[in-house]
């Protein structure tokens, strides 16, 4: 009886955290809500809390955090929040804002919608774009080359959603949210909500949220199957936070995978992940140089004869 009650409470942690952050952004002190650093602190807090839960409610021993995984994950978290964030702002959001201004596009009506409706709308816009970008990455070779490093991770942990090739990390952040004049706190609530859901979807936490939650949102069960060792099995459950889009577009698949990774579960170093999309070009260049060297050697041998 006690074990059953404990399991139920653990299963309710993800929706409880979503609710807690929504309540904070809806009713928190205005001075805090207006400060952009509050979002940074909240996002960091999500990762720290879920990492702690991994030690208490471990899902799989094979996914247990170690020093190498921790510092690799930390590198990508910092990369995403600095370099990738700057690239997104500079090369995507700022140009879109300029286009919006030049075309005289106004969406002030969005800011007059009920606050929770704005949050749901913002989450849906982001997740719709990420679903199709993610699906594209699994079905078109050049895009797959940028995304494949994310599938070479051999265990799932709280910060693994940030691990990947920098090109992919940039592409997956693209959205059209700039065109909509959302209330700032609604946007921050949206970012925190998706952070909670996607963090649990990558985490080594033995939590299986209720059916009503997993119908709409991605869970570790859905996402671990997406990270399975069989490439064909990865072509499902593309939703980063909203598994609902997979249900709508026919790419949802039930199941769970304990073993994750690609190419016989070969773990890539940070450098290998960084240059992975360019490997075909590098291999072609090396083959060309080897062929040229062989021709030169043969010519030299013929001249000597």
Automatic annotation (TrEMBL):
Residue stretches spanning the membrane:
7-28, 34-53, 74-92, 112-133
GO: which molecular function terms? iron ion binding; oxidoreductase activity
Keyword annotations for this protein, in alphabetical order, are: Membrane, Transmembrane, Transmembrane helix
In this chain the Fatty acid hydroxylase domain maps to: 120-251
InterPro entries in the record: Fatty_acid_hydroxylase, Sterol_Desaturase_Related
**Per the UniProt entry, what are the Gene Ontology biological process annotations, in alphabetical order?**
lipid biosynthetic process
Q: Where in the cell is it found?
A: Membrane
* Major location (coarse): membrane
Cellular-component GO terms for this entry: membrane
Which Pfam families does this chain map to? FA_hydroxylase (PF04116)
Name it: Sterol desaturase family protein
């Amino acid at each position: 009886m006690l074990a059953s009650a404990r399991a139920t409470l653990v299963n309710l942690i993800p929706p409880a955290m979503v609710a807690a952050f929504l309540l904070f952004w809806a009713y928190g002190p205005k001075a805090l809500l207006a400060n952009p650093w509050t979002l940074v602190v909240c996002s960091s807090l999500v990762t720290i809390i879920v990492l702690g839960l991994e030690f208490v409610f471990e899902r799989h021993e094979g996914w247990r955090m170690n020093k190498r995984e921790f510092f690799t994950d930390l590198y990508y978290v910092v990369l995403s929040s600095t370099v990738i964030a700057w690239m997104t702002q500079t090369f995507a959001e700022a140009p879109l804002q300029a286009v919006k201004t030049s075309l005289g596009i106004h969406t002030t009506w969005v800011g007059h919608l009920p606050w929770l409706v704005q949050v749901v709308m913002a989450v849906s816009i982001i997740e719709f774009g990420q679903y199709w970008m993610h699906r594209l990455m699994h079905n078109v070779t050049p895009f797959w080359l940028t995304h494949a490093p994310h599938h070479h991770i051999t265990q799932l942990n709280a910060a693994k959603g940030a691990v990947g090739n920098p090109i992919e990390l940039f592409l997956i952040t693209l959205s059209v949210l700039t065109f909509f004049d959302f209330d700032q706190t609604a946007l921050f609530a949206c970012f925190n909500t998706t952070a909670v859901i996607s963090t649990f979807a990558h985490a080594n936490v033995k939590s299986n949220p209720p059916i009503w939650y997993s119908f709409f949102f991605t869970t570790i069960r859905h996402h671990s199957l997406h990270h399975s060792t069989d490439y064909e099995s990865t072509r499902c459950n593309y939703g980063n936070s909203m598994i609902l889009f997979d249900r709508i577009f026919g790419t949802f698949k039930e199941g769970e995978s304990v073993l994750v990774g690609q190419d016989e579960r070969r773990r890539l170093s940070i450098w290998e992940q960084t240059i992975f999309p360019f490997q075909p070009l590098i291999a072609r260049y090396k083959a060309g140089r080897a062929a040229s060297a062989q021709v030169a050697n043969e010519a030299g041998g013929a001249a000597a004869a």
